[in-house]
Write a structure and sequence with these properties.
Elements (H helix, E strand, L loop, with lengths): L8 E2 L4 E2 L2 E6 L10 H18 L2 E8 L2 E7 L6 H19 L15 E5 L4 H10 L2
Length: 132
């Protein structure tokens, strides 16, 4: 995994290190994310991240699912972040690859998300307990 050069992001009113681990799958868990489709998907996901000033820390595209570890900002809820990635990539990929039209939609409506920041869960719990 590449080392994040800026572990903390700064906005006008917040300093944060919010990172999301998303996992999402094509409809019917179809193994369609291969070769040119996988390469193009990677490029599209990076374009979406750049457009919104998010940082992709890690990306793994498997034939039937995607792992995306991204640092976003506090202005966007996790559902908004994944919606941008899935919506844009579905539109672009279905326009460019005719065989993807066999699926009723490219992505399932479901996804997995886990949040993480600079400190791990145990570190935060211990810090809070030490405050009393």
């Amino acid at each position: 995994m590449p080392i994040n050069k800026k572990p903390y992001r700064r906005g006008r009113h917040a300093v944060h290190a919010v990172k999301y681990h998303f996992v999402f799958c094509p409809k019917r868990r179809a193994s369609v994310l291969k070769d040119e489709v996988a390469n193009r998907l990677g490029k599209v996901l990076h374009e979406v991240a750049d457009e919104h000033e998010w940082e992709i820390n890690s990306l793994a595209i498997r034939p039937d699912h995607v792992h995306l570890f991204v640092q976003a900002d506090t202005r966007h809820a996790p559902y908004q972040v994944i919606h941008r990635f899935k919506g844009t990539s579905a539109h672009v990929l279905r326009d460019e690859f005719d065989h993807l039209h066999r699926l009723p939609s490219l992505w399932t409506r479901s996804y997995f998300v886990s949040t993480t920041g600079k400190a791990g869960e145990q570190v935060v719990q211990q810090y809070i307990e030490d405050q009393s």
